[in-house]
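$ ./design --mode recover --in tokens.txt
reading tokens...
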């Protein structure tokens, strides 16, 4: 099974593809509410490409990423809600972070050299300061 925009996956309606890379895709999903008064919950759902799901090493790495990230608690790190395999789809359900992608951010900065990009990225990573994160 491949995830498609407009379909239901788990308890989420897949509304659009956010991004796509060499190993997977990320989709914007909205929780399907049993009760109309329930809070509207939006998430990002990361999916490992089917071609890589057969590679045990990549599949294990994908799920290890989710398990490790799930243990972190920090305001600059998205929360992981769920991960697993359903209908042969390897997935990670995580908090949806509003804003720009790192690529969009870099393009908007009008940086001229690789060195400028590297300095900016290092600064942004320092803002996360993983040393302040707690492990649940």
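writing sequence...
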């Amino acid at each position: 099974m491949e995830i498609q925009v407009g379909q239901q996956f788990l308890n989420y309606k897949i509304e659009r593809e956010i991004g796509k890379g060499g190993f997977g895709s990320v989709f914007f999903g909205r929780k399907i509410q049993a009760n109309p008064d329930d809070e509207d919950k939006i998430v990002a759902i990361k999916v490992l490409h089917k071609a890589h799901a057969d590679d045990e090493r990549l599949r294990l790495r994908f799920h290890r990423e989710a398990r490790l990230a799930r243990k972190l608690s920090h305001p600059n790190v998205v929360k992981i809600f769920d991960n697993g395999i359903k209908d042969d789809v390897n997935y990670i359900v995580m908090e949806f972070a509003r804003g720009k992608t790192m690529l969009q951010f870099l393009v908007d900065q009008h940086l001229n050299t690789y060195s400028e990009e590297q300095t900016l990225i290092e600064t942004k990573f320092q803002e996360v300061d993983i040393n302040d994160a707690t492990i649940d």
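exit 0
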